[in-house]
Amino acid sequence: MDPVQALLLGLVAMLGSVLGSMLGLGGGIIIIPLFTLYLDVDPKIAVAASAVSIVTNSVVGSQKHLFNRFVNVRLAMILEITTAIGAIVGAIIAVMIDANFLRVFMGLMLLYAAFTMLRGRKIAIANVPTDTPDPHGLMAQYTERDGSIVTYLPQRLNVGIPTSGAAGVISGMLGIGGGVIQVPLMNLIMKVPLRAASGTSSFMIGMTGVASAFVYWASGTIDPRVTIPAMLGVFLGSNLGSILTRRLDTSKLSLFLIMVMVYLGISMLLDALGISLGGLF
Amino acid sequence: MADSTVRIPQQERADQIIIPTILLLKFGSYLSFALIGIGLVLSAFQNHELQTALRSLGPLVNDLVHGRAAGFIGLGILTMIGTPVLMTLLIALRFWQIDERGYAYLTLGVTVVLIASMFVAMIG
Fold this sequence. Notes:
The structure holds two protein chains of two kinds.
Chain A: H1 3-23, H2 28-38, H3 43-67, H4 73-96, H5 99-120, E1 140-143, E2 149-152, H6 157-174, H7 179-189, H8 194-219, H9 224-247, H10 250-272
Antiparallel strand pairs in A: 1-2
Chain B: H1 9-46, H2 57-65, H3 69-97, H4 101-123
Helix pairs in contact in B: 1-3, 2-3, 3-4
C-alpha cells in the first residue's frame, strides 16, 4: 500500500465524514467523486469502499445521535424494510452495469442533492401537541440545547415507505448512504424536524450500507488498500464532525457544500464524456 | 391544546432501547478497529502487501488460523459490517421486552432482510 495514497484517501474520507456528519449525510456523496476524480480510484472500488465507510460512519456517529434522542427508532425500522431491500437490488445492479453509467448517475445525484439542500435550508417544523392521535406510536421527543422539548409526529408514511425503497436502490447502486434522499424525505414530506431527520437517517444508513456491503464483499470489489484508509478517515471525521457541529454555523457550511457538490456533479458528468475538469482542487 | 413540553410515554419506552444499542455499537466499532490495527501491525512485520480484494469466508478463516494480516483485516471489516445486523437483533429483542410486539416483528424483518443480503451476495 502506497503510504501517501493511503494518507490522501484517509484525509478525503475524513473530510467527507466531517461534512457528512455536520449536514446529516453519510459522506459517500463527497467521498466517491473525490476518490474517482482526484485519487484515481476505480468507480466500482470507490463505491464499495464508500459502502463500508458509510457503515462505519453510522456505527460511530449514531452513538451520539442515539444519546441525544435524535433517532426515532420506530420510524427508522418502518422505513428500513423497503430501504434495505432496495439497497440489495441497487448493489446487484451496480456490480453488473458499466462504470461510466455510475459516473453519470452519481453526477446527476450530486446535482439533485445540491438542489434539495438549497430547498431544505428554509424548512422549519412546528411542535405537535402531545395529545395528537398517534396510531403507530411514532411520536417522539428530544431536548434542544436551550432545554426546550421538541415533540414531533412523522406523517405521510404512505409516501415515505416507497420513497425509502427508491432511496435504497440508489444507495446500493452508488455506495452512498441515502441520507441525501432520506433527510429531505423525512424533513419536507414526513414533517420530522431536521435534527431528528438527520439522526434517524444517520442511524438507518448503517443498516442500508450493510445490505449493499455484503454484495460488494462477495463480488470482490472491497479492496482493503482503499477501504481501510477510508474507514479510519471516516472514524476520525465522524468524531470531529460531531464536535464541530456544536461550534460552527452549519448554514454557511451547507452553502459552501452546495457549491462543491454542483462542481463535483458537473465534473462527474463531464468525466463520463471524457472531458476532465481536474486540477481546480 | 395540550402542553407539548410534557414527556410522552412513547419516548420513555424508546429510551429503554437506546442505552443497550449505544453499548453494542461502541463494542462493535472498537473490536473492528482493534482487529484492523492488529492486521496492519502484522502486515508491517510479515512484510505482506494487503490483498486487493476480499471475496469469501474460506480464505479469511485460513488466514486467521495461520495468523496472517489479511485474516485480521478481513475480520475487522466484517465485524464493522456485521455490527448493524446484531444491532437490529438487539432492538427486536428490546421491543419484545417492552411489549411492542409489532415493532419487534418489524425489526426482526429488517434483520432477516440484512441476513438475506448475505445469502444473495454468496449466491451472486
